[in-house]
Amino acid sequence: MPKINNLTGATFGKLTVLEKTAERDGRYIVWNCRCTCGNEVHVSSKKLQRGTVISCGCDGSVTRKRGAPYEDITGKRFGDLTAIRRAESVNGKTMWLCRCDCGNEIVAEKQALKTGRIISCGCKKTGQRGRVFKDITGQRFGRLTAIEPTKRRDCKGSVFWKCRCDCGGETEVTEDSLRTGNTVSCGCRKQEIQENIRDNLTFVDGTCIDYLRSRKSRSDNKSGFRGVYRIGDKYRVNIGFQSKRYYLGTYDNYEEAVSVRQDAEKELHERYIKLYDWWSERARSDPDWAEEHPFTFQVEVKDKEVYTTSPLFQAANM
Predict the structure, then answer these.
(1) Are 201 and 195 in contact, with CB atoms under 8 Å apart?
(2) 19-45: buried (b, 16+ CB within 10 Å) or exposed (e) per residue?
(3) Which residue has the higher pLDDT, 12 or 199?
(4) Non-local CB neighbours of 184 within 8 Å, separated by 6+ positions
(5) Long-range contacts of the stretch 218-223 (C-beta < 8 A, 24+)
(6) Which 8-state DSSP code applies to residue 226?
């Protein structure tokens, strides 16, 4: 958490800080400020201290990236829409909850409202650059058939349609998602794909053999090596196996932490694959032997080191 400074009374450009609010912009305090023009806006301490916001926007001044995000447009009209209150930002864009003259409410981007790109909830034609309500009743999109429109709209004004899937399920999808092909089923297609993928993989006691064979050294965390996590100025090492996670210690040196993780992989993952390949090959040629000698593999961590055991090690010359 950044150091909290009392900015009350401080001046930043045309803004004078009045008081701290209960809002937060990420980790930063949001302050209520008065502009020299008389308007009041909410601005985070980060934007004030960095000079990103220096007015309420009355003089056309903008932030370095996206303009003055805290401009208060409450009560202002944009076509058939009236801004009610600011909503949660989306991908860094300032969003406002608006009420349409037809009674529907939508969340729209402030910039789209000010430029006239969105001037209604989508309930009717909104102008040359606006959205047009189109009747797609009965039309098919993948496995989905559009049944009827709902009163819901997304932030772009696209209508949510009630759709029936070929599997019998029903769902609500925006017209945009239907037309672009982003949604083609109620979710059953995704489930079928996932089941087909799983059927083509080899799982033993919850462990995917194919994953262990194809794993690559990838940067999936801040340290840059799988299973090694940077915590402050130290490096924590874990290794996962059969839905369990084993703690292998915390180290001052990154190279040492990576070495510990690699040694654990050789003892655990590589030894597991080698034993399974040997066992499965023999099981194919002698099913009766396989029934008498099931595949087993145990893991134990002592003093931050991985130890593996199996009654099959001796027969496999491991």
Answers:
(1) no
(2) eeeeeebeebbbbbbebeeebebbbbb
(3) 12
(4) 141, 142, 143, 144
(5) 223/254, 223/257
(6) T
Q: Which two tokens stand for residue 254?
A: 């990154």
In this prediction, residues 247-260 reach a mean pLDDT of: 91
Contact 47, 55 (CB under 8 A): no
Distance CA 169, CA 237 (A): 45
The amino acid at residue 282 is R
Q: Which residues are CB-neighbours of 279 under 8 A, at least 6 positions away?
A: 290, 293, 295, 312, 316
| DSSP H or E stretch at residue 129 | none
Please tell me the predicted confidence (pLDDT) of residue 59: 61
Q: Reduce the DSSP state of residue 40 to 3 states and report it.
A: strand
Give CA–CA dist 293/275, Å, rounded: 13
Look up tokens 């709902």; give the residue.
150
pLDDT at 171: 93
0.70 cut: is pTM over it? no
